[in-house]
Inverse folding.
């Protein structure tokens, strides 16, 4: 059973919410509940801690309010379903939840209480925020993506068994990172010394075949593109365990976006900001300045797209970037030269060069903040 | 080391190709090599065997031919690189190969021998076809996707170790299906009785949590959408091992496409047709006729999109469909009612209903051809 930071189970938290509503009704008071606003104006970049999070603007959902009563009722229905899932010990997705809502609410009331999933999704976030939980704690799995190998073990309590997974014994496949890396799962014997996050699965496979994680005593992760919640969360947890985090992506708009999302979180997950952001992460490459150091890369560049150039220009205006000259130099160089560079290009001279590149960058502390 | 059907290693096959070219040159003959045409007109549906494959139209690539000599030279460069990868025992992707070509050919010749990856990709297929190999045999990994659980073991020879993976002990994650499921990997102790392929990872996770594969003694696979080469290939291999294959998708254009691709292969992989098609596969659901059997589904339908309707109309013209009244009924029903149905909707009454649905369908042999 999951326990949140405040040491209460999700089951108990939902019950407390329900009980407070019932108390209000019995008292003849207007039942309501409070969450934090997830509007743009309440999403702030926390400069001290280095990630996107919600500000303190509260929103109240009240039952006795014509414009809110339907939404209030829907929220209670979502909470009741999640309570059931947690009690049953069964998981589904936000789509599965939506179908359950449609199924059972259609029976008691004439009106179609939920006609689109876009109605139930924000209510889940309301509850996550109001109860200081993540949806995974409510037995709602998110899309999963991402793979891991390295010197650590996982104890996955699954189907009433304690399944032990040795992340040095996953062969060509690696361990597929699940949606929920907090509940009924433990990461033990983390003997690796650092974490390297590789944007592309192709490069992860290349490094895995070279047993890079073994030779370097590292945890080798790929988010397989943009990082899913589970992958962002496990990176956070490994940073909490004291491991330095290095991120290795293409030198283009998409690669930078992947890095910034891992590091500072994202607007749509600002409501669980600190749990899925890793401000300690460093950017290892590839960089535009690699073109000076590795001569051969100059014939392996690609034309930057309009999206790349536009994004680079936008990034130059970020307050955070302005503080870091190294990033300004990178961005300006791309804009001026109109070329970009893929991590795959490091395979040019020989397939095993990719690992040597990473090794040297880390050894020489050649990374960006 | 990989061995193909004709019991020769890829390394030897490439060497034989190279030697024959050298012989031609020494003789003063025009060096050439022969492959099968991959043009639309040479892609045929093999009615006897039930899958898409190439016909017998041959294409000759000749060196002493102004329009072909560059391509001929490029093909030899691709073959030489693959030979090196196989000899080194190292893998990359077609993108990694492209960068190697760009790197080393740029050194010896002035001209940019490869300026786009779209130039090297078809040459890889030429070689696959000419040598009766798959690119995985040439140490070129394709994108991977797909997850598996169930009563079987995998012996993955990886990093000079024999890694043993018990597919009943993969917990919430499952075993991530790699690109290459043929070379240096074995599937042993397949004790499961059938294979169920579930379109969506979300539903796979649902069934995995219910230990469906254990209770039913099945192999539970999700391609995570459209099936990648590795997933198509492992389904083929499990069918070869004598297991019936059931496919479970949404009742919509995309779901049907996923099914047909698993069953009959696809146009772009027609050149390795029989290796990645499983004509024995059966379609379990969801079906439009489920609406009659499961009353509750009627309130969980979705509006069909224009793409769904157009695709359904096209399918009605397929020769194969015309032979199967059951499919005609399905397609016509969607076109007439303009609604579709997702597999997720089966979670409406209770989360565990999904497994009961599959069980009952198989028990009653309610599947489409």
């Amino acid at each position: 059973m999951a326990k949140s930071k405040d040491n209460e189970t999700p089951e108990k938290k939902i019950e407390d919410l329900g009980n407070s509503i019932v108390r209000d009704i019995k008292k003849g008071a207007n039942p309501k509940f409070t969450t934090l606003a997830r509007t743009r104006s309440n999403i702030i970049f926390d400069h001290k801690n280095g990630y996107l999070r919600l500000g303190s603007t509260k929103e109240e959902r009240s039952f006795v309010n014509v414009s809110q009563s339907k939404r209030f009722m829907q929220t209670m229905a979502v909470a009741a379903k999640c309570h059931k899932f947690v009690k049953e010990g069964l998981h589904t997705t936000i789509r599965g939840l939506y179908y359950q809502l449609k199924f059972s609410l259609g029976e008691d009331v004439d009106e179609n209480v939920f006609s689109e999933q876009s109605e139930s999704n924000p209510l889940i976030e309301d509850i996550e925020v109001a109860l200081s939980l993540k949806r995974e704690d409510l037995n709602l799995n998110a899309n999963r993506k991402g793979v891991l190998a390295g010197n650590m073990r996982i104890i996955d309590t699954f189907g009433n068994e304690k399944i032990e997974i040795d992340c040095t014994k996953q062969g060509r496949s690696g361990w597929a990172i699940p949606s929920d890396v907090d509940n009924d799962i433990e990461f033990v014997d983390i003997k690796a010394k650092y974490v390297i996050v590789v944007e592309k699965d192709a490069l992860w496979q290349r490094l895995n075949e070279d047993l890079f994680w073994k030779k370097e005593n590292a945890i080798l992760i790929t988010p397989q593109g943009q990082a899913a919640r589970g992958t962002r969360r496990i990176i956070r947890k490994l940073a909490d365990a004291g491991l330095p985090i290095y991120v290795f992506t293409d030198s283009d708009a998409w690669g930078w976006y992947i890095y910034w999302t891992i590091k500072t979180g994202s607007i749509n997950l600002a409501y669980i900001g600190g749990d899925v952001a890793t401000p300690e992460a460093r950017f290892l490459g590839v960089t535009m300045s690699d073109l000076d150091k590795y001569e051969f890369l100059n014939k392996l560049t690609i034309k930057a797209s309009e999206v790349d150039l536009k994004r680079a220009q936008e990034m130059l205006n970020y307050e955070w970037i302005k503080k870091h000259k190294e990033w300004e130099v990178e961005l300006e160089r791309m804009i001026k030269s109109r070329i970009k560079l893929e991590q795959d290009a490091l395979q040019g001279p020989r397939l095993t060069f990719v690992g040597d590149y990473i090794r040297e960058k880390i050894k020489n502390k050649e990374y960006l903040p």
User: Anything to note?
Assistant: Residues 287 and 293 of chain B are 10 Å apart (CA to CA). Residues 69-88 of chain B form the longest helix (20 residues).
